[in-house]
TrEMBL record:
<feature type="domain" description="Glycosyl transferase family 1">
    <location>
        <begin position="179"/>
        <end position="325"/>
    </location>
</feature>
<dbReference type="InterPro" id="IPR028098">
    <property type="entry name" value="Glyco_trans_4-like_N"/>
</dbReference>
<dbReference type="Pfam" id="PF13439">
    <property type="entry name" value="Glyco_transf_4"/>
</dbReference>
<dbReference type="InterPro" id="IPR001296">
    <property type="entry name" value="Glyco_trans_1"/>
</dbReference>
<feature type="domain" description="Glycosyltransferase subfamily 4-like N-terminal">
    <location>
        <begin position="13"/>
        <end position="168"/>
    </location>
</feature>
<protein>
    <submittedName>
        <fullName>Glycosyltransferase</fullName>
    </submittedName>
</protein>
<dbReference type="Pfam" id="PF00534">
    <property type="entry name" value="Glycos_transf_1"/>
</dbReference>
């Protein structure tokens, strides 16, 4: 098959990284894959080929006749069998370009989050209903994401399936984050839904009980400067480190004592699977599809916004790591969530259309 993957931007974000990894595995299976980014970006994504860009402006996304035409020209030149829109504005560009320029290829939309968190107003629901009604298949990252989307847009029920996110095997050695301290790691963009504010409250409470704890924050995003200031306000500067531009966080995750994820929403976060693969214990809020991979036998699941319980679970993991739980988590990921297997499920879904 000839497959065109559309991503929002060249950035180190889950949707773009997974689309790149998925595309590589589809190529390894014998398919021909091209990728195009709507907006420019400077991230070096792991796709083995060149990523084209429409070089459009986000502020113009509802009136971008030139961008929709550029996408049409790419489709005419490449002549794909399947087009996959990977989250966010990619859905808008794919549907509007198809409506205006009348190309015939089926559109697959990858639903990677919790739609109801973003779609609040009547207008937003109305316009997104239009876009979703004009795709051929929706691939949700978790059963939770599927249920949320189907509840918000009942017309999507018959064409929505679930294919989880996958991860890559890691061959790099662990990075030593600091032998004389207990290392807590968080990997995620500095956005509201990742809840860095809540994470700092958790860490401040934890630091009062364990002065050897150190928090490592990996990621980029619009709220990074705000979080850096809050670290200083909490007088945690000596115990918090920031990292950016890290293309592969797995060696750092391998070197940590625990990975934490107190997000407000999630679809199915790859970073939890990566930690499990790396034999690093995980503590996360029970939001989105997280309970589909974390149970008492694979990690620590905490009810949303329960800072005290989150802190207690981290301390327990740091002082008494459960080796059976770590082994169970690693086994589950290797059996069910490796990208070379996940890519085959995508290929079957494409062929069904």
């Amino acid at each position: 098959m000839r497959i065109l993957q559309i991503i929002q931007k060249k950035q180190y974000r889950g949707a773009e990284i997974f689309a790149s990894q998925l595309s590589n595995h589809l190529i390894n299976q014998g398919h021909i894959v091209e990728m195009v980014s709507i907006y420019d970006g400077d991230a070096i994504l792991p796709f083995k080929e060149r990523i084209m860009s429409l070089s459009t402006e986000e502020s113009n996304r509802y009136l971008d006749f030139e961008g929709w035409k550029k996408l049409n020209n790419i489709i005419v030149d490449f002549s794909p069998d399947v087009i996959q829109a990977n989250a966010a504005d990619t859905l808008k560009y794919a549907v509007i370009s198809k409506k205006i320029h009348r190309w015939k290829q089926p559109i697959f939309y990858r639903n990677a989050s919790t739609s109801s968190y973003y779609i609040k107003s009547f207008f937003s629901k109305l316009i997104n209903s239009f876009f979703l009604n004009n795709v051929d298949k929706i691939i949700s990252v978790s059963h939770s994401s599927k249920a949320d989307l189907n509840s918000l847009f009942p017309s999507t029920k018959e064409k929505t399936i679930v294919i989880p996110i996958g991860i890559e095997a890691n061959t790099e050695r662990p990075v030593v984050l600091g032998k004389a301290r207990k290392n807590i790691i968080h990997v995620g963009s500095f956005t509201r839904e990742k809840n860095h504010q809540g994470l700092l409250k958790i860490f401040k409470q934890l630091s009062a009980k364990d002065t050897d704890a150190h928090l490592h924050l990996f990621g980029e995003g619009p709220l990074r400067e705000e979080i850096e200031k809050r670290v200083q306000e909490f007088k945690l500067g000596k115990n918090v480190s920031f990292y950016e531009g890290v293309r592969n966080p797995l060696p750092y995750i391998s070197g940590a004592d625990v990975l934490v994820l107190p997000s407000k929403i999630e679809g199915l976060p790859a970073v939890l699977l990566e930690a499990m693969y790396c034999k690093t214990p995980v503590v996360a809020y029970n939001v989105g599809g997280i309970s589909e991979i974390i149970s008492n036998s694979t990690g620590c699941l905490v009810e949303k916004d329960n800072i005290n319980s989150f802190c207690i679970e981290i301390l327990d993991v740091l002082n008494n790591p459960d080796l059976n739980r770590i082994k169970n988590a690693e086994r589950m990921v290797k059996l069910e969530f490796m990208n070379y297997n996940i890519a085959q499920k995508f290929a079957i879904a494409y062929k069904s259309i």
